[in-house]
């Protein structure tokens, strides 16, 4: 008993450390032994411990270092790859040594396997350093690479093994599927229940853009329905199971499986698979999801990088990797910026100042124990891209310390030793070397103590003996370090020293000489791509793999429509295989493709362009011919007929092969080939069709046919029965006449129809209405009824989606054409036009042009000969066709539209009009109903184009259609026709206004008066002119009303004056500005002004110091004026100027000078028009005191009296001019100039001399629109 008790030992320091580091494994694997100890035993053990301590005390300086006992994991036996049949179990084994005891984890394709979450699939065991993973009931999706990882405080190691699952039931599956059964429904029956799984309402190939939300879904039907039984629904992306996260949401309602991708990123692009697992098997469905880049904010910048990940995280260091984007922008990518953000904050800090070219960057300077996320931005000459999706969070911590977070106490730290100078690191190597940085890695020393160590890095330039410490300020905590700012092309050596509180250890062995530069080369260009047809919107592209490439990330495929030179990415996430299906292409378009490879160093050169390929569905073998019928029989041969296959496989049927066999006594012989070359008609027992893809399956055998000459009188059966233009309520049925007419010609046909579900007795004539599916047959008639044709159908009376009809188009040149479009064109498909369902071969009436899914039938010369029904059929399609009936009424309407298009007219809302504006300006305007931005206006006066200048101002507002032309004033020469000519593409329009005769002269006078009024009202002016009235006292009261103008307003002033003893006189009132003193003086109770007799006066009552200053008076008679001033500076006491009032009197001579100034008061016209050869005499009235001097001028040159010009001045009032026998040379601008000492004035007029003979030569309608 005592011997057994002595076998129980206490836990050692290393076991305690192992337990604390790997709590989960220790709690699961260790069996805690509970033992009851007697008091005597406890005392004895205490004595033994005391004795041992006394023995050790003399050697107290010696302490055993636990580090000498620990070592990193090591595989004694690695797992081996295995091949297993489907449905069997497989077990992977390995043996691992290491202390403390390593932690074991299994991975499938780098995804952690949680055996406890899937006990029905996996079993993981660990016993005595032997570990195993059992995979149960293997299937195809278990084929993968399985990694096993071992981790302890000293490090981590891993091994890999491949498992390949082969199907032992391939032949069986082929047989089952050939019978139309589902393989999953019969593979694994359990407990007497076999579940059949059917997936319907499947999601198609999907396209989304970054930032959008996309949902994929399928309806799953499981039969039979078992209460409370639910299948396992699993979603995969690129064969990797998806787990719910903030980006991925899954939902199973019991009938429908839905996957929702929130805020799409390019990382979400790939092949998505839905797998439904039941007890009886599984069913799957897959489709590709493409994620397009979001629109860039700045034109030409690259799109965001993708797939940012963190590797090799340590205490203050992590390596960030990413994948380059598919689109570099307007120029090549210059590099990338890496940003980091501490978890829990929103502050992003840029990690590198200079963009890095490699898609890999070591980030240093992290704070130990904190969590970080990272993102990457690309940069080119145009700018910086949007940031990528953020990485998963990573903790800056030593790998051996991560599991320590689970430790609830610090027992092992209490037992650690201190004061040990660490040893030298080992295995110092350069793991990465680029022209931007170099990364060093090493192993910690064996002798380091449990307080931890830090490191100093030293470098030496090749050829020198001097070592320089790189991180002098702060030692690093991680056994990784990135060195920047090294000289490119130079050679360096590196070594590492350890340090702790006890001191700095010895240096490690130096690395070899390392040349700073890129070690990873760009990939070589991929091989020539080959593009082949796949579907109406996709193409399959194959290419040769890049030969010289390291660490390949994948390939990007680009496409371009032929002739555009615009390249678009087909995938935004690189693919590693050398085959890719490019979706989302335009049906019928011609594309070329190219491929480029990418690794961490960058992009390869693009491959050569592929040959052009048209996006169309791939060609397949045609369907089976049907309805083999005997058309006519003779003594030694028979004529057979059959229906062409409903599906031609996307290519023309090139012919048919006929097989036959002999039937004797009801026993059929072997099949023989009737013809070795394909027949090109449908008239010739088993029939096989052939196209360029191959030969179809044979038709069903016909009934035995006897080769005997026909002598019957009834006609044979119609052949070639087929339908076109299937719509919801109609269908066109066509057929060919029988080969055998009987004894008389066929004179008519009967068409019968019945619903598909009705019996044979339900055949009815086509005059009755039917719905749903139809069957058709034909009866012929001569003198008797013939046999019915083969039954055609069933035909579903439903317009197929996307069906287009023939429409009539009239282009801008008035050309009439019929257009038919088809978006489902196949290779070899053609448009076949018919009139009255007979193919058009005569091109004299129609010209047919077909290109890129559109056919246009152009009428060469539309007339009544073209009336009828035109139809168009597209070959190599599923009966795509349409028709259009041209009637006489429709033809007339089209001809009218054609004429309007050939000779278009711009419509006017209003014809040209004219109105008089302020200042006497004249506005000519019109408005059009509609016009384009290209519409132009030509302004014409009397057939001469005029342009904008001093005289004319033009404006055309195309948004409202208003056209305007302004003239500041009208002159004599402005008599004639004003025209606006409009041109808008082919359309034209003209509008005119005639301005001549009395109407023009009246408008000119109104314009001159309006301008004079405007000028008059710019200063002080009369509102009510001078008038008089007689008062009861027999006095005459003169009065008028004047507008006084200030800077900001106008005010009306009444002026009146009482006159006594007036006999007869002429009174003038001139409006002038008041007296001014440093500004205009306003009238008030204290300051007044007025006229008394021959004097103008200004009176200031009770003057003050403020009234000092310089006073002036402006006198203006409408044309000239004078100014007088008086300086009232206030010398001495202002009271000297009359204590109560100050009166300033001004001599009347100033006012009189305005009244007696020389003036031309009337008599002269503004314009004179006179016929050539006649004499002109004009007289002007002159006023002024003293009598003015008189002279005449022509074009500002003074005239002298002679035989041609006679100048007179009579009675000091009348000045006259006479021009004898005027000629056109006498036309010009004349003036009567008068002058005296008070001023000068000129009366101007214009003389226009015309020749009546020249005017008769001008057409009467000249100048009219």
UniProtKB/TrEMBL annotation:
State if Phosphoprotein is listed as a keyword: no
Q: Name one GO molecular function term.
A: structural molecule activity
* Entry protein name: Myomesin 1a (skelemin)
Q: Per the database record, which ranges form the Ig-like domain?
A: 73-166, 189-290, 788-887, 1170-1248
Where the record annotates domain Fibronectin type-III, the positions are: 304-398, 424-519, 525-620
Q: Where in the cell is it found?
A: Cytoplasm
* Signal sequence bounds: none
Instruction: List the keywords (alphabetical).
Output: Cytoplasm, Immunoglobulin domain, Muscle protein, Repeat, Thick filament
InterPro entries linked to this entry: FN3_dom, FN3_sf, Ig-like_dom, Ig-like_dom_sf, Ig-like_fold, Ig_I-set, Ig_sub, Ig_sub2
Instruction: List the GO cellular component terms.
Output: cytoplasm; myosin filament
Tell me the Gene3D superfamilies matching this sequence. Answer: Immunoglobulins (2.60.40.10)
Q: Where does it primarily localize? A: cytoplasm
Pfam family for this entry, one: fn3
């Amino acid at each position: 008993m005592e011997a057994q008790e002595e076998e129980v030992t206490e836990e050692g320091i290393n076991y305690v450390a192992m337990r604390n580091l790997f709590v989960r494994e220790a709690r699961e694997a260790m069996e805690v032994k509970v033992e009851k100890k007697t008091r005597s035993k406890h005392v004895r053990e205490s004595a033994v411990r005391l004795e041992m301590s006394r023995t050790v005390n003399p050697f107290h300086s010696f302490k055993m270092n636990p580090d000498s006992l620990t070592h990193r994991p090591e595989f004694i036996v690695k797992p081996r790859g295995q091949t297993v049949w489907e449905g069997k179990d497989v077990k992977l084994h390995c043996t691992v040594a290491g202390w403390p005891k390593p932690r074991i984890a299994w991975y499938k394709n780098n995804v952690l396997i949680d055996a406890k979450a899937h006990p029905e699939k996996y079993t993981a065991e660990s016993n005595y350093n032997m570990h195993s993973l059992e995979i149960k009931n293997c299937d195809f999706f278990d084929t993968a690479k399985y990694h096993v990882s071992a981790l302890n405080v000293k490090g981590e190691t891993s091994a890999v093994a491949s498992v390949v699952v082969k199907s032992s039931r391939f032949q069986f599956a082929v047989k089952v599927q050939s019978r139309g059964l589902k393989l999953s429904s019969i593979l694994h029956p359990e407990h007497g229940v076999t579940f059949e799984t059917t997936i319907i309402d499947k999601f198609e190939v999907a396209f989304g853009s970054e930032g959008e939300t996309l949902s994929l879904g399928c309806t799953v039907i499981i039969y039979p329905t078992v209460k409370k039984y639910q299948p396992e629904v699993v979603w995969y992306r690129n064969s990797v199971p998806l787990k719910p996260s903030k980006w991925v949401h899954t939902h199973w309602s019991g009938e429908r499986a839905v996957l929702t991708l929130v805020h799409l990123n390019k990382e979400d692009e790939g092949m998505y698979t839905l797998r439904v697992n039941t007890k009886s098997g599984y069913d799957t469905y897959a489709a590709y999801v493409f994620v397009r880049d979001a629109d860039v904010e700045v034109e030409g910048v690259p799109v965001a990088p993708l797939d940012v990940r963190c590797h090799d995280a340590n205490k203050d260091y992590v390596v960030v990797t990413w994948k380059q984007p598919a689109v570099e922008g307007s120029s090549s990518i210059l590099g990338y910026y890496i940003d980091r953000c501490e978890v829990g904050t929103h502050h992003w800090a840029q990690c590198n100042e200079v963009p890095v070219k490699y898609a890999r960057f070591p980030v240093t300077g992290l704070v130990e124990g904190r969590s970080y996320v990272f993102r990457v931005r690309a940069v080119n000459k145009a700018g910086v891209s949007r940031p990528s999706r953020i990485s998963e969070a990573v903790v800056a911590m030593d790998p051996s310390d991560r599991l320590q977070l689970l430790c609830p106490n610090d027992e092992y730290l209490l037992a650690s030793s201190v004061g040990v100078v660490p040893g030298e690191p080992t295995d110092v190597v350069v793991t990465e070397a680029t022209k931007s940085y170099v990364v060093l890695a090493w192993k910690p020393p064996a002798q380091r103590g449990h307080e931890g160590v830090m490191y100093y890095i030293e470098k030496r330039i090749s050829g020198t003996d001097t070592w320089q410490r790189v991180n002098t300020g702060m030692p690093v905590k991680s056994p990784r370090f990135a060195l920047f700012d090294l000289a490119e092309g130079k050679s360096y050596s590196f070594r590492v020293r350890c340090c702790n509180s006890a001191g700095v250890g010895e240096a490690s062995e130096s690395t070899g000489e390392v040349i700073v530069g890129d070690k990873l080369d760009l990939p070589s260009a991929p091989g020539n791509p080959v593009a082949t047809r796949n579907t109406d919107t996709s193409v399959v592209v194959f290419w040769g793999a890049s030969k010289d490439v390291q660490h390949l990330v994948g390939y990007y495929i680009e496409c371009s429509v032929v002739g555009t030179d615009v390249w678009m990415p087909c995938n935004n996430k690189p693919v590693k295989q050398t085959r890719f299906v490019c979706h989302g292409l335009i049906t019928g378009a011609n594309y070329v493709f190219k491929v480029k490879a990418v690794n961490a160093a960058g992009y390869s050169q693009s491959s050569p362009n592929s040959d052009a390929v048209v996006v169309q569905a791939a060609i397949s073998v045609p369907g089976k011919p049907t309805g083999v019928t005997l058309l006519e029989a003779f003594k030694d041969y028979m004529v057979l007929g059959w229906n062409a296959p409903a599906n031609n496989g996307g290519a023309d049927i090139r012919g048919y092969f006929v097989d036959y066999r002999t039937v004797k006594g009801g026993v059929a012989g072997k099949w023989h080939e009737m013809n070795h070359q394909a027949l090109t008609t449908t008239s010739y027992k088993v029939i096989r069709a052939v196209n360029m893809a191959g030969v179809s399956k044979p038709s069903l055998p016909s009934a035995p046919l006897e080769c005997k000459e026909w002598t019957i009188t009834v006609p044979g059966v119609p052949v070639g029965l087929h339908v076109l233009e299937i719509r919801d309520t109609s269908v066109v049925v066509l057929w060919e006449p029988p080969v055998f007419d009987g004894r008389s010609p066929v004179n008519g046909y009967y068409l019968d129809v019945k619903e598909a579900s009705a019996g044979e007795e339900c055949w009815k004539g086509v005059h009755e209405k039917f719905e749903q599916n139809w069957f058709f047959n034909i009866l012929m008639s001569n003198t008797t009824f013939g046999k019915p044709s083969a039954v055609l159908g069933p035909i579903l009376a439903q317009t197929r989606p996307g069906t287009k009809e023939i429409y009539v188009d009239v282009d801008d040149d008035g050309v009439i054409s019929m257009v038919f479009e088809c978006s489902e064109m196949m290779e070899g498909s053609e448009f076949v036009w018919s009139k009255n369902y007979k193919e058009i071969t005569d091109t004299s009436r129609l010209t047919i042009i077909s290109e890129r899914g559109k056919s246009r039938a152009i009428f060469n010369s539309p007339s009544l000969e073209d009336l009828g029904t035109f139809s168009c059929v597209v070959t190599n399609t599923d009966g795509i066709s349409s028709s259009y009936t041209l009637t006489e009424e429709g033809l007339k309407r089209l001809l009218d539209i054609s004429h309007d298009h050939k000779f278009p007219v711009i419509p006017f809302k209003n014809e040209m009009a004219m109105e008089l504006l302020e200042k006497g300006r004249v506005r000519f305007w019109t408005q059009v109903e509609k016009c384009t931005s290209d519409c132009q206006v030509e302004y014409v006066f009397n057939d001469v184009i005029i342009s904008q200048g001093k005289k004319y101002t033009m404006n055309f507002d195309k948004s409202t259609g208003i056209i305007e032309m302004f003239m500041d004033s009208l002159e004599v020469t402005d008599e004639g026709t004003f025209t606006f000519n409009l041109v808008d593409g082919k359309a034209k329009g003209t509008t005119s206004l005639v301005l001549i005769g009395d109407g023009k002269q009246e408008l000119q006078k109104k314009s001159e008066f309006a301008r004079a009024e405007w000028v008059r009202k710019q200063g002080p002016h009369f509102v009510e002119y001078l008038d008089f009235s007689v008062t009861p006292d027999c006095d005459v009261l003169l009065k008028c009303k004047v507008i006084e103008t200030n800077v900001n307003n106008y005010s009306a002033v009444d002026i009146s004056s009482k006159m006594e003893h007036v006999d007869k006189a002429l009174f003038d009132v001139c409006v002038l500005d008041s007296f001014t003193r440093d500004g205009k003086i306003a009238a008030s109770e204290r300051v007044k002004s007025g006229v008394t007799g021959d004097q103008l006066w200004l009176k200031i009552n009770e003057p003050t110091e403020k009234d000092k200053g310089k006073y002036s008076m402006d006198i203006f008679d409408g044309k000239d004026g004078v100014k007088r001033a008086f300086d009232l500076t206030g010398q001495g006491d202002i009271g000297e100027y009359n204590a109560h009032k100050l009166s300033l009197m001004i001599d009347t001579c100033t006012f009189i000078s305005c009244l007696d100034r020389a003036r031309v008061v009337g008599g002269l016209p503004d314009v004179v028009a006179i016929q050539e050869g006649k004499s002109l005499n004009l007289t002007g009235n002159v006023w002024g005191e003293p009598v003015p001097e008189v002279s005449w001028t022509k074009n500002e040159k003074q005239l002298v009296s002679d035989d041609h010009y006679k100048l007179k001045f009579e009675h000091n009032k009348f000045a006259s001019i006479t021009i004898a026998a005027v000629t056109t040379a006498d036309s010009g601008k004349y003036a009567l100039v008068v002058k005296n000492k008070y001023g000068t004035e000129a009366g101007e007029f214009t003389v226009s001399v015309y020749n009546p003979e020249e005017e008769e030569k001008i057409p009467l309608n000249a100048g009219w629109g």
